[in-house]
Structure formats: structure tokens, C-alpha cells
Amino acid sequence: MRILIAAAGSRGDIAPYTGLGAALRAAGHEVALAATGTFEPLVRAAGLDFRALPGNPAEGGGGSGDTDGTDLLLLSTTTAPLGWHLSEATGTLGIGVYLQPTAPTGDFPPIVTGTRSLGRPGNRLAGRFALRMTDRLYAPAVTALRERLGLPPAKPSDTRRRQERADWPVLHGFSPALVPRPTDWRPGLQVVGNWWPHHDPDGQLPAEVADFLGAGAPPVLIGFGSMAVGEGERLSELAVRALRRAKLRGLLQAGSAGLAAEGDDMLTIGDVPHARLFPHLAAVVHHAGAGTSAAALRAGVPAVTVPVTADQPFWAGRLAAVGAADEPIPFRTLTADRLADALDRVVRQRAHGEAAARAAERMAAEDGAAETVEAVRRLSGASVR
Questions:
Q1: Does 238 lie in the same domain as 335?
Q2: What digits encode the pLDDT tens for the residues 277-316?
Q3: Are both 358 and 370 inside the same structural domain?
Q4: 145 in a domain, yes or no?
Q5: Residue 106's CATH number
Q6: Residue 202 lies in a domain
Q7: CA distances from 27 to 2, 3, 20 (A)
Q8: Both 97 and 183 in a single domain?
Q9: Do 237 and 185 have their domain in common?
Q10: Based on the domain organization, do 183 and 313 belong to the same domain?
């Protein structure tokens, strides 16, 4: 089967699909991943074909790459609102592959509105409102796309409701250890477990990282991924002060912010696969992106979360709820003293580490990629009967 995965966003929104794509390829499928051009090397390194997406799918340009010859579209949260219309025009089967829970539920409020529960009815109502706002965001692009595809006019909200009534299948690539499947979700919505970014299984840690790890007690990693551009100097100084006050060794991951530090007890690093590095750490300080949150939990490592935007407060709240992280520190309130105090709690008190280890044990029994391969086989088979 020829499968096209379409995903848009930052590196954390793309990397999990390289692992999913590699698993589908290993199962005998031809797999391409559509993303913005920045991620072409990442996609090709996983052995997948690359298709180009525009910079922002909500601004139009197709939203799901070239679909010629595609048998199955796998659509992310950000590409589904346009991918539905490509499926309609071409007759190509589409399945959702989401990294976030977007369907309304009484269990928690919408992931983009914060973590304060509004009660079960209020959470569901807010969830529907959040979907309506998404429909409005995509409306101009949907109008232009349907015209280009020769489809009759249709509102994004009408298309969404039609998909929901048909129990359009969505596979969610996060762990039920972190977010159990809500009991009030409609049929067709599954939580299958994480899709982990592809990396060379025979690869090794960079020599300087391995040497640093072996030279003393397990360090703390501090990094903000693709967040905090332009804040590097301030955050680097803050991180060094916090680590010194807490008497901990540190790895500063440069990321988009450009973190950097020098000293016998500090090391600046670039991109290193989480699966290879995290098991060697005492704790991770991060922005609570979905991928980093899951990777720290998988490694059984406690976290200090510093959410910046979007769905990050949600994941920070989930880590705290399962006990694997201290209470979140919102990015704009981060200080060296607050970070040092939180590090002291998560590293030197046992509760957070024990909770992370329990979650890691549960996640070890999950295989999100294998569950998805089987779901694709089952759903695609049903579509041709």
C-alpha cells in the first residue's frame, strides 16, 4: 500500500512520524512523509520518501502534499482539516494520526485553554468551542482548496460534523499511562501509545557526552526545544545559577534558544536522541512538548516542566498529575531560585522518580507503532470490502 503521512509544525510535531513511517515501511508499505522543507533531511534519514508542504497548512497550498498514487492518507491534527477535502476529491481513504487529544471530553478541558477543569459539562462545552475556533482558522484555506479541487462549497464545521457522525477513525500517538482514553469519546477514537522518532539503533552517544556522563553523578538536562528563540543568554545564565545552587551537574541543550554554558560541571550539547540520552539523567527540565514529555517518562526520569505555549501546559499538567514532575513553572515566571528549588525536590526526593519509574514500566508494555500498523491493516481492509 502507498501511504502518505502529512504533518505540520515544529520538529516535535514531525519527528514521531518518522518512527511510525519506518514501522509501516518495515511492514511492507511504501511510505512518504509530507512536511515543510526544513524537515526533509529528518524524513529521508528514516528511509522515507519526502513530499513538501507549505509553511502553514492553514494558509492553504493543499495541506497534504502530492496525493497522486496514494492509497491511504494519515493526517495529523494540523493537516486533517484540509486532508479531509483531499480525501473527498480523490476518494483516498484517510485516517487521523494525532499527537494530541482534541475531541471534546468531560475528563479535561481543551488542551489549548490551560489546565483548569470547568467540570465535566463545562469541559465538553469548551471542547466544542475550541473545535469551532479551529474551523474558523481553517475556513479561508478550506474555501480555496475546495474551489481548486472542483468540490462544491462547504463549511469546515459541516465537514467536521460529517466526519464525527461517520466515526472517522483517529489513532492517538500518546501513552494511556499519561492520558487514559476518555470514556465519553465517540467510537473510532483510539489511544495506541507513542510513536517514537526514528534513530539508528546502533548509534552511540557523542564521545564528549559519554565522557561527561561518566565523569560524575548523573546530570540534569535543561532544554527548551524549538521554544524561547532570542532568550538564550538569559536562560543560560538562569540555568547555570540554578544548577550551581542545587549543586547539580548540567547538560544544556542549545535548541532554538541557543543555550550554552562552560565549566567542568556543565556541557553544552546539540541534538541527541532522547532514547539514548535520557536514561542517564537525574532529571530533565523542558518545555513540556508532547514528545519530550513522553521521552522523559519512558526513561523513568522525573521532570521540571516550564511550559511556554500551545499544548505544553496540558502535558506539563499531565506529568504532574501522574507524579512524575513537579508543579509546572510557567515560562514567564521562571527564575533561578524557582528552578533550583524544583530541581532539589525532583532529584533528591524519591516520590517523583518513583512515579516516573512506574509510568515507564507501563509504557514498556506499549507499542504504538505496531498498534498503528495493525489498525491500518484492519481499517484499510474494511474499506475495500
A1: yes
A2: 999 999 999 999 999 999 999 999 999 999 998 899 999 9
A3: no
A4: yes
A5: 3.40.50.2000
A6: no
A7: 12, 12, 11
A8: yes
A9: no
A10: no
| Domain-located, residue 201 | no
Q: With pLDDT > 70 as the criterion, what percentage of the chain qualifies?
A: 96
Beta pairing partners, 359: none
**Structural domain containing residue 76:** 2-194+366-383
363 near 173, Cβ under 8 Å?
no
Whether residues 190 and 246 fall in one domain: no
Q: What is the 3-state secondary structure (H, E, C) of the chain?
A: CEEEEECCCCHHHHHHHHHHHHHHHHCCCEEEEEECHHHHHHHHHCCCEEEECCCCHHHCCCCCCCCCCCCEEEECCCCHHHHHHHHHHHCCEEEEEECCCCCCCCCCCCCCCCCCCCHHHHHHHHHHHHHHHHHHHHHHHHHHHHHHHCCCCCCHHHHHHHHHHCCCCEEECCCCCCCCCCCCCCCCEEECCCCCCCCCCCCCCCHHHHHHHHCCCCCEEECCCCCCCCCHHHHHHHHHHHHHHHCCCEEEECCCCCCCCCCCCEEEECCCCHHHHHHHCCEEEECCCHHHHHHHHHCCCCEEECCCCCCHHHHHHHHHHCCCECCCCCHHHCCHHHHHHHHHHHHHCHHHHHHHHHHHHHHHCCCHHHHHHHHHHHHHHHHCC
pTM, two decimals, is: 0.92
